[in-house]
Structure formats: structure tokens, C-alpha cells
Amino acid sequence: MSLLAFIIGMGVASTVGCLTLILIEGRHQILGKTERIAWGCILGPTLLTFFFFLLYTADLILFTRLSLSVSAVLLLLILIGIAWYRKLLHAPRFVKPHLELPQKKWMKIVLVLIIVWSAMKILAGSLDLLTTPTYWDDAFNNWNMRAKVFVETQELALELPGGNDITVTKEGVNSYPPSVPLMKAWLTILRGEWSEGLANSIHAVWYIALLVSFFFLLRRNENTAVSIIGTYALTSLPLLLIQGLNPYADVYVAGHLLLAVGALWRAAEEHESYAIKTWLLLSACVMTAAVFTKNEVLLVFLPVYILLFAWTLLRHGHAHRISLKQLIQTVITILMMAIVLIAPWLWFKWANGLTFGNAKSVSELAIGITVQTQAAFYAIWYFLTREANFLFLPLAFLFVFIFSLKRSLLQPIGILALFVLIAFFGQAMIYLLTPLATEATNQTGLGRGLVQLAPLAMLFTVIQGKKLIGKGSIDD
Amino acid sequence: MSASAEQQWLFSLKQGENVVWEGFGELSGQSDPNGTLLTATGTGGFVTNDFSFQTLPDSVSLLSSAEVTQDVLFVWILEDGISMARSITLPAGESQMTDVNLASEPAWRNTVKTFGLQFSPGQKLLLTSLTFHKTSPGEAMLNAVRSFFNFDLYRSYSINFVWGPQFALGNVARAQLWDYLPPQAFSATRLVNILLIVFFVGLGISLAFQTSIPFDAKKKIFFRWSLIPLVMVWILWDLRMGSEYLSWMAHDARTYIFASPEERTLRDRDNFYDFAEWARQYVHDREHYVFFAERPWPYLGNMRYITYPSIPGNDTNDDTWVLYKRPEITVDREGRLSAYGSPLSNPGTVLDKFEKGSFVFRENR
């Protein structure tokens, strides 16, 4: 039953994602089939649970098998109907990825070895995820617990029983967007009863979808061998692997950021107006949907994204690659998208007194240099230089950024680096100047925030690092 | 002395050994062929300054016998008069050896002239000897390599950070690498980060003085040569961290996934998950129930999650009690749960027993 529920539940969610992507791409599809499925596995659950949330807040449904199933089918029918009406289901592909293999035998052996090594880790971690009980604090206190409460109450409950007559109020983890627990609840409701393996299975899907998306983003710039090596480097990051194959939500957020900022980078690289427009719309759709994944997307990542989005628009506008009319049309479409995808959740938060911030309200955070500041600074430094959380990515990223500074600041590839650096600076300031310093000194939130940025940092490091050692000027 | 042999200094407290030590506070000592029986009626201890090391030891081994486990302080005084202390747990039993890594103590320096032990009131033990060790350079090298591949366990913090490979040079430091956190060793990641930066800077400087090479060519050489050590250490670290990860997965598979239900345990939670699933059948019809585990975290939250919508708590007005690893709580003659002679509940019956100290009790109402 668990397998059937997984196939139906995840299948519906990823199809919702794929159809949404097809609708955005329009007549000139720019994602490959496999690539779109990977994107759909990340975006789809967010959009599907958002649709459930909309219907629930409109008092149209409760979280029952019948109402969620009907809602899911309705959403699928709407998306298929629009795609069919616009004749998009069999639209020609803009890019056909060509996965050529290297000619040299030793290179083939190297690639096979790193693929087998990475697959061993992912398979072992997935088996562990599916067959062991929920062990980690945030999983049994938040992500999975909220899912159980949604299933039991059939409502978007904003308070949890905490034990010892304590109630976990809506100011706490209940202020988090409900996408992850709602997705777990959806799978559970399809099955009929709770299953640890089923509820946790989506995390492995998100991690693998992240790796596949990373490979194809890299493949747009590099050959197959470099793309495989780059993806191997991403799987070698210990903390990303651990988080990816456990019931925490940060790799899910990382997936959204990779797609949104990766698509923005592609938009900035393009010269054809329809490709620019399509990448911008894809990027904006994923980013606005990401607001429904975790609170820090709205508070930390969205402002940085808007800044770089505006830079991309100005750059294309200045180069006359996109007309003023197209630019205005794109901006209006994106604003409408943002209103549809962000406004209902924000309204819900305000209406129910939910806090902004990660488990702690932003309004309650006093800002200033305290005795904790130095400890938090040391903890960040320690985390990045003495622990093996991301192997040598921090050093490699910084090295590549410094030695390609001009290109990083002026060329499209810089979007990846600037997003990582500005967002990290924002995170660091929060740890250094607010009582959230404990998240750094206890090494809890610190690692999770960096997990969200790691794929983008790796993408930049591989592409720009390759440029540094390759032929031609690095400022080309 | 060969480079591969360890240096040792024995401070024996056996009867007839010619060592000098000075007691302080409320401590009495009685010599015995097996050591000195030390009894503290108040805070007291002993120190000696009649002992010289040719070089600073990196660990000390205490040989002791005691009826109960005891925490004592190993104290040392530097030449400038500053005294330092480190707590040591001496286990119960006959002739127990306790190894203590001293190399990780920042104040364990060459100027150590005096050392001793301090005891708390009521402590009593037979101390046979303190043996100081200095790992040889050869052993230290070997320890560094072996400790690099000495894996941490899959612990509750592993979801937030991993320590990564460590260089522990001393024999005791390597043996106890993951017993104390943060690890009492030098981070290999830190060392390599430093070495990589030194390499990059050195390479850059050496290329800068090569006037015969054009600037653009120098840049390419610089980046390509920089890549070589980076790729090498990246692969090495991935092998190390990937192997650690696979060792965690293998451990889970061996001890939980493929183990029999009666024997399986999960990481540091022992058999809690099977206990919780077993207990669920007795609380599923209760809105609340009393739950006491060996400690609140992480069991209360985990139990709440597993038995939801039945909620555990410490409100003793509920009629059903679920106890996990609380052997001190038993049913007294009146049929009540009691601990150390104090009643905790109303009379009732044990519904079922999972193991000693873990059972479900329901009051008669």
C-alpha cells in the first residue's frame, strides 16, 4: 500500500509540477524531459500542497482522502486542459540535451567509479531513511509531527500538543509554511494510515531531483564528463548528503533555490527574447513558490533574488535584447504569479497571528552586538574551516570568486556567486547581531542555512573554476 | 630509546615504593602492598613535586580499586604557581585502569612541576599508581594516520554538522578520539585548509618571479597547479567522509534494519522505538498518559510523536503510566508505583512488562 500511495501521491505532485513548467515554457520548451521531471518533483509538491492550502482556507475542503483526491484531480484537469487548449502537450523542444561520453578510456573508468561510489551512498542512505524510525528532533517535533496532526484533525492545525501539558503554539514551528507536512499528510491519507517510510520517502526524491537538476543545469554549460564530475562533487558534500537523506526540509529549499537562481542565471546568459522571457518566468515561478517552503525564503532569500532579478532585467533592457513591451509583459506576469503564490500565505499568516522568522518571531529579535557575537563569529569560522561539512567548498568557492572577480561581478555567472554571498552575509548578520546567535554557537540553524546555498555555490565553483583552468581569457 | 617506543614514568603508591607526596585537607592514607588506601573525610588530596619528566607526557593512566564509581580531580601546578584541574571518573571494581589524555589540556605545559589528586568528602579508594606516557614520534605519525580514518558515530548532532577527520597523535588521544566532544585532536580539515592556502600563496609568489613566462600563461599555470592538490584532498576527504557515512548505514543495517525485533537497537536510543510501538497499544484509547523515561530528552518528544494522538506527560492524575528504563520505580506492597520508598501513584496493576524497568501500569479507578 505504501508503494502505491507513493506512486500515486508523488506521481500526481510531480505531474502538477511538470504541467506547470510546460505551461510556462509555452511553444518553445526549453527543459529536457528528464530535467523537467526533476524540476517537477521539486516544484510539484509545493504547488499541489499550496492548492490544498488555498481550498482549505476558502473553507472548501478538509484534509480527507476524498476531498484531497478530488482537489488533486481537479488541479490536474485544469492544468491538462490549459495545456491541451494551448496545444502545448507535444510542443517542440527548444534544447535537446546531447549526452556524449568521453572518448578516453581512463576518463570513462573515472566516471563509472564516481557514479558507483555516489550511488552506493545514496542507496544506503535511502534504505536507512525508509526503514528506520524518525530519529531527529525537528522531524518528530515539527515536520512529521505536524503531518500527523493534519491527518488526525483533518485541519491545518496551528497548535500542537507538546506533552507535559504544554502546547506548542502558533508562534513556534506552526508558523512554518505547511508544504512539507502537508505533502506527508497527502501520502498518508492516500495510504489510509501512517507509515514512517512513506512519510519520509519524499526527502530522498527531493535529494535525487536536486542532483539531476544540478547535472542538467551544469550540462548547459559544460560537457557530460564535467557535468558528472560536478554532480559527484555535490554528492560528496557530507552535510548535504545527510540532510538530503533525512526528514529535514533544507534540501527541499535548496532545490527551489537552485532552480530559481539557476534559471535566473540562464535568463541572464540568453540572447533570444523568448528564451530570456521563459527562463525568467520559470525562475520567478519557482522562487515565489519557494516562499511556501520555509520562512527564511521570504526573509533572507527573496530580497536578494529580487535584487538580482532587477539587475538581469536592466541588463537585458540596456542591451535591447528584450523590448520594453516584452519587459513590461514579463514583469506583470511575474507580479501576478507572485500575488497568486505569495499573497494568500502572507494573508493567512497575518490573519492567524503567525510569526515571521524561523521558529522565533522577527519582531522579537533585538539587534545589537552582544557577548554572543564573538562566539557566533567563531562558530561560523569553525564550521567553515575546521569541520568537514562541505569538504573544501568554502575555500574553493572563495578562491574561484576572488580570481574571477571581474567576471563574477559583471557577467551572468556572477548571479550564482552574488546570491550565495549576499544571502550568506544576511544569514551571518542574523547570527552575529541577534539572539539567534545560539543557532550558530550550537551549530543548529547555521548548517541548515548553508545546506540551502551549497548547490548554488558548487554550480558557480565548477563552471567558473573550469573557466579558470581552461583555454582563453577568464574574462571572455 | 627508539623512535617507535613509548616513554613511561611510573609513580607508584604501593607500600615500600620510594615516592614522596604531601597530603592536604582532610585525607588519610594507609599503605598497602597493592597501593595506598585513600579516605577523604572532607575535601582533601595529595600532591608531589618530587618527580621529574624528561619531556612532557601526553597522557596518564591511573590504576585504582573502589567500590563505587567516583569523580576525582587530577590537579597540577605550573612553575608560575597557577594550578589547574581536570575531572576524572574512576570506575568501580578491582584494579581498574583509567587513561586520561593530557595533551588536549591547554594548560598542560612544560612548566608542570607538581601534580596530584583531589578528592571530595566521603570518597574512598585504593590507588595503586599513576603512569605517565609520552608517545614516540613514530607512534605519533602512525596514530595520525589511523585517527584520520577513525570514524565518529551517527549521533543526534550529525544532522547539523560533522567533525570530519582528526589527527590525534597520542595513543590515549586516539583511543578516546570520540569519547569527548569536541574531539581532543587537531582538525585535519583545518590543517589542509591552511596548507592549501600556503600552497596557493607560495605558487603565486614563485610564478611572479618567473619573468620568462607571459602573464596570461602564468595565470593558467597557477590555476592548473592549484587544482591538483585541491582535487587530491577532495577525493581523499570524500573517501574518508563517504566511508564514515557508509559505516553509519552499515551499523544501522546490522543493529536495527536486519536485526531481529527482540535484539534490535537504534543508535543511542537503544530499544526505545520497539518499546514505544509496544506501549502504544496500551495508551491508544487514552487522551493523556504519564510517561517517565531515563531522561526527558529526546524521549518525551519522540514518544509524543509515536503515540499521537495520545499525549505523554508528567501529570500524575492520569491513570496509565508508561515507564521506560526506570528500574528504581517498582510496585510496592500496596500495589502503588513507588521510588526509593515514596509512593508515586494510586494502587493499580502492571498491564505488561517490556523489560526490567520498562512497563505499563494502570491505576485501579
Helix and strand run of chain A: HHHHHEEHHHHHHHHHHHHHH
Distance between the termini of chain B: 77 Å
| Sheet/helix structural class of chain A | mainly alpha
Helix content of chain B: 25-40%
CATH fold-level label of the largest domain in chain B:
Jelly Rolls
**Number of helix segments of chain A?**
19
Q: Which blocks of ≥5 consecutive residues of chain A have pLDDT under 50? A: none
Q: Count the helices of chain B. How many?
A: 6
Protein described:
The complex is a heterodimer of chains A (476) and B (365). The model of chain A has no long low-confidence stretch (mean pLDDT 91). In chain A, strands 1-2 form a two-stranded antiparallel ribbon. Chain A has one domain. The longest helix of chain A is centred in the C-terminal third of the chain and has 29 residues, at 324-352. In chain A, helix 10 (250-269) packs antiparallel against helix 11. Chain A is mostly helical. Chain A is globular. Chain A is built from 19 helices and two strands. In chain A, strand 1 (160-163) and strand 2 form a beta hairpin. By secondary structure, chain B is an alpha+beta fold. Chain B folds into three domains: 7-134, Sandwich (Jelly Rolls), CATH 2.60.120.260; 139-255, no CATH class; 270-363. In chain B, strands 1, 2, 3, 4, 5, 6, 7, 8 and 9 form a nine-stranded antiparallel sheet that branches. Chain B has a five-stranded mixed sheet with strand order 13-12-14-19-18, covered by helices on one side. In chain B, helix 6 links the parallel strand 12 (288-292) and strand 13 (311-313). The longest helix of chain B has 43 residues, at 215-257. Chain B is flat, with a radius of gyration of 28 Å. In chain B, 32% of the residues are buried. Chains A and B meet through helix 4, helix 5, strand 1, helix 9 and helix 15 of A and helix 3, helix 4, helix 6 and strand 13 of B.
Describe the protein's topology.
The complex is a heterodimer of chains A (476) and B (365).
Chain A: H1 2-25, H2 33-57, H3 65-85, H4 105-131, H5 137-153, E1 160-163, E2 166-168, H6 179-191, H7 196-219, H8 224-235, H9 238-244, H10 250-269, H11 273-290, H12 295-318, H13 324-352, H14 371-385, H15 393-403, H16 405-410, H17 414-433, H18 437-441, H19 445-469
Antiparallel strand pairs in A: 1-2
Chain B: E1 7-12, E2 22-32, E3 35-48, E4 59-66, E5 70-78, E6 83-90, E7 93-101, E8 112-119, E9 124-134, H1 137-148, E10 166-167, H2 171-175, E11 186-187, H3 188-208, H4 215-257, H5 272-283, E12 288-292, H6 299-307, E13 311-313, E14 320-323, E15 329-331, E16 337-339, E17 342-343, E18 348-355, E19 358-363
Parallel strand pairs in B: 12-13, 12-14
Antiparallel strand pairs in B: 1-9, 2-3, 3-8, 3-9, 4-7, 4-9, 5-6, 5-8, 10-11, 14-19, 15-16, 16-17, 18-19
Helix pairs in contact in B: 3-4, 5-6
